[in-house]
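FAQ
Q: What does a multi-component entry look like?
A: The components come first, one per line:
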Amino acid sequence: HSTEQTETADRPACDNLNPGNLQLVSELKNPSSSCSVDVSAMWWERAGAKEPCIVTACEDVVSLWKPLNSLQWEKVHTWHFTEVPVLQIVPVPDVYNLICVALGSLEIREIRALLCSSGDDSEKQVLLKSGDIKAMLGLTKRRLVSSTGTFCNQQIQIMTFADDGSSKDEQLLMPPDETVLTFAEVQGTQEALLGTTTVNSIVIWNLKTGQLLKKMHIDDSYQASVCHGAYSEKGLLFVVVSQPCAKESQALGSPVFQLLVINPKTAQSVGVLLCSLPQGQAGRFLEGDVKDHVAAAVLTSGTIAIWDLLLGHCTALLPPVSDQSWSLVKWSGTDSHLLAGQKDGNIFIYRY
Amino acid sequence: CSTADLGPISLNWFEELSSEAPP
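Then the predicted structure of the entire assembly, as tokens:
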């Protein structure tokens, strides 16, 4: 089925969207004094208590912020990078007191763990992996999956973390004969991992055995789609992909996310929901994040748009604030907050 | 949207594919 045959989510006019769906909670004013490259939320343990902290990253500094009260944040740790710039934060669920970051110039060259010494609480870095890293994702149970190399010499590795940030266990997954572009853990089926490839396939692995279970070619209209989430229910796989290259049409508007349903037994797939912008909104997908059933995207127009995948329509639009376009959007891993970053480095925290 | 076109569905797809795939 092509994109044109997919059911389109309702496209309410911008005026009908409830702005109350997003409430500003607090703000980090230009925390790094330079352009932000990423933001994330994680748990950090101090004096025996776990606190929900914010991690901000610019090219040469990663900072950890702890809450002073419901409105204010205090910078408690800073890691500096003088040789290779920071590209992104890699959140790893179930891990406390450890931040993973990817470093490189355009291409990812290193993955590092950032942590603090237990003795003097000083910041330190541990090199976890180096090479031609194509894709990576933090997984449940303190694991990180990464792929290095291209199709003929591709290596897909799972690292499990020890408390001190070092890798305590390494396991290889069977590589497909296509270069992996993105990974997604499958909610609802423990030990299933999904990947998308550069030539339009979806692959599934068994994380426990390392087996490559299935390679499924999907319609060419999903060319080089990035997978943001996967759910397994009643024998079917529901996969959320973004559509950075999708063409705008009069009937469908500007598609940003798409929900595919795949039967992993037969490798047949169909698009079931197309998340397009409300009427009157322009822009294409720039970057985005999906958590449970809500999908958020920064658009080329500088606006952030949010869709509820269960309701099937756009539920909130966040236009640029103070004439500053949005450049980052992330769901918090610690609560139902949305972290929104501006080009000048300001970070805003909204309750959704 | 009908899922009839997707072929027979198995609730145990993960276990079945794991037993069929090469180790």
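Q: Is there any commentary attached?
A: Sometimes. For this entry: The radius of gyration of chain A is 20 Å.
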